[in-house]
User: Fold this.
Amino acid sequence: MRDAFVRALMREAAHDERLTLITGDLGFGVLKPFWETYPKQFINAGIAEQGMTGMASGLARTGRTVLTYSIGNFPTLRCLEQIRNDCAYHEANVKIVCVGGGFVYGSLGMSHHATEDMAIIRALPGVTVFTPGDPAEVEAVVPEMLRTPGTCYLRLGRGGEPTLHRQPIGEWRLPKALTLREGKDVALLSAGGILTQTVSAADLLAAKGVSAEVVSFPSIKPIDREKILELARRFRLLVTVEEHTVVGGFGSAVAEVTAEEGLPCRVKRIGMPDIYSSIVGTQQYLRGAYQMDDAAICARTMEWLAE
Amino acid sequence: MADLSYTELTHSAFPGGACDTDDPAVLAWLIRRHGLEMTRLSRGSHIGAVYSLAEIMAVLYTRALRVDPARPDDPGRDRLILSKGHAGAAVYAALAERGFFPVEELKTHYQNGSRLSGHVSHKGVPGVEMSTGSLGHGLAVAAGMAMGAKLDGAAWRVYCVLGDGECDEGSVWEAALQAHHYGLDNLIAVVDHNRMQSLDFCENTLRLEPFADKWKAFGWRVLPVNGHDIDALTAAFAEAQAGLGSGQPTVVLAETVKGKGVSFMENNILWHYRSPQGEEYEAALKELEAQRP
Assistant:
């Protein structure tokens, strides 16, 4: 996803010389094509995320689109108040980019597990939150993010994820949810890079005779309310999947919509329970350990369907 | 007194209410006069910080900043960020007296439904560049603006007024490193060095000294100045502006007295939060009126 992001960004930078990328001293090997091609549009702020984010707000107010870039929790939680006060409140044209949403840096430990960012940033008024699920969605959302006024947050996975969409996405507009599989027994709603597991879980369910619809939400704020309501009318069980705490994130956003409409479907949330991970491991190991890999999504969905 | 409007009341020391706000001494006096009235009406805090800043703000708005109340959004204007947002009354008073919005509106400071929040706000207030209030935010944003101006080859400058207590915040020093690294010689920080913060003197709280040396070590030009001496401040801002081309940002280290102008408020930590009411208000007003330029 991060390489798709850099490709999409470079396409935009080619015709917008005021597009500026600031990194908090991360992106070795990833951002190189950008800084070699557009050295005047690239700034390394150093290991100083508060300074980076404040600077982005000031630069944006000289008529620029400014992206801040770092990994894990560094571009968000480390400088949260700068995002809230200096960017969002001032409607600054700053796009915050996180590489490593969820357990991408699983082996590095709790500091590098980005498992509350969606909930926290979603709570900030005026911030649009993008959660693409695969490289194709990244390429589709980046132009839309750059068109969107004000402060945005883009949560990416890692490098090397497979492309899951079989058809080109084409021109994508906020907040459209994207259906990858149609089904009739249960709907699996997914946000972010965990989409690989959600799609694979649908295959496992199919092998057990359960037809699962798979819908990806490339943005969770605003969220595609109409799609959620349509799914809630068609299915008695909606399962939300996110590589993130179940508190306040994607599943919560879906449950808010269905509860407010008083629809009778159940919403079950798959994600990190309300704890920090003190164990380490690869991303896939931790997904399994916390019951959000494909096998767990399949097993838990079967249990809920049987209830 | 009850029959006077807010503007008439605060201008009553001048014959016929007429005063020349091009004169920094007059503007500094008015900032203190409004500071007294605004914190009395609102039962608000921070009069001490407003008083230590009065001459700094007055000189900035009369002799340093290229701003025009008729065109507050002029792309070529100089920018001023008050990073120590709790002294917002000083900015509001200066802007109102310089014609950015009606003086009468100052009486709404802190009040229900007002746009003049206790900590300075930009929303709907002509002339305010940035809302602050949480300390340590302004310098990085100012550095970003200065960087934008440099990239565009624009001639405008960015001023950022900080408190010394505010320099406890690590984010100030992140921005200080960045401003130096990127050679932002169009950025001028002004530190209101009144040596006091919320609960005590800075040196008893979290030692800042040797303060000037810290800025020098971070690569800044340091201009120490008496922050209540109008001519000295005028010269310091001129020298700061002359730093363009040096590749270094400049900090004007303004030695000030918290509560300056009212004897019982000077260097008294009580007046970081206390609001002037009753006899204290009357006593402060009497002292101010005796100082009217």
Q: What stands out?
A: The first helix of chain A runs from residue 2 to 13. Chain A touches chain B at residues 40, 43, 45-46, 48, 50-64, 66, 81-82, 85-86, 89-90 (CB under 8 Å).
